[in-house]
Amino acid sequence: KCSSPLISFLDLQLVLLGDSGVGKSCILLRFVRGQFDPSSKVTVGASFLSQTISLQDSTNVKFEIWDTAGQERYASLAPLYYRGAAAAVVVYDITNPETFLKAQFWVKELQKHGNPDIVMALVGNKADLENEREVSHAEAQAYAKSNGMFFIETSAKTSENVNQLFEEIAKRLPRGQS
Ligand code: GDP
Ligand code: MG
Predict the structure, then answer these.
(1) Which atom of ligand 1 is nearest to the CA of 70?
(2) Does the model's ipTM exceed the 0.90 cut?
(3) pTM recorded for the entire structure
(4) In terms of DSSP bridges, do strands 59-68 and 46-54 run parallel, antiparallel, or are they unpaired?
(5) Inter-residue contact 150 to 168 (CB < 8 Å)
(6) What does the pLDDT look like over 10-64, one tens digit per residue?
(7) CB of 40 shorter than 6 A to ligand 1
(8) What is the rounded CA–CA span in Å between residue 130 and residue 72?
């Protein structure tokens, strides 16, 4: 039997949120360019990149990604980026418990002011630094579950789970008429 391929296209606006230094820009560079630059620059304000992936069901998903700055002085700008977003990725650093608390602040912010259908992911980055871990996988997993979020640990450095993160978000998007 031969079935004709049904190809569909989705545009997905995604925002990266989280404390400064957790690796948001590095995750994005790893996803879009396949690179890791340990001397990457601090994000000022916000920056934008896009990347298209093909899922196994032949859906092509074009990610339009806003990478925000984690510094306090830009926090008031964040709603500009997350209000229209279909997906939000909240990142913390598994070696830094303060960044996990900051991630919880962003989750509450999204629950209060984000699009009600937003797909949210909680990401514990720097998974390569296992010997410096201070936030347990189990604790973060439980927090994510109780907030209806998808949870994954990544390493922008080794690329572990970076593509999987974006694929899982794409799969979780509500598929209406397209
Ligand atoms: P942002 O402020 O959240 O955008 O963080 P950056 O992407 O600028 O990264 C902050 C610092 O963490 C940089 O020195 C990166 O080299 C480092 N970094 C980012 N991701 C990882 C990772 O997965 N593992 C390790 N070991 N370091 C990382
Ligand atoms: Mg950055």
Answers:
(1) 2
(2) yes
(3) 0.93
(4) antiparallel
(5) yes
(6) 899 999 999 999 999 999 999 999 999 888 788 777 788 999 999 988 889 999 9
(7) yes
(8) 28
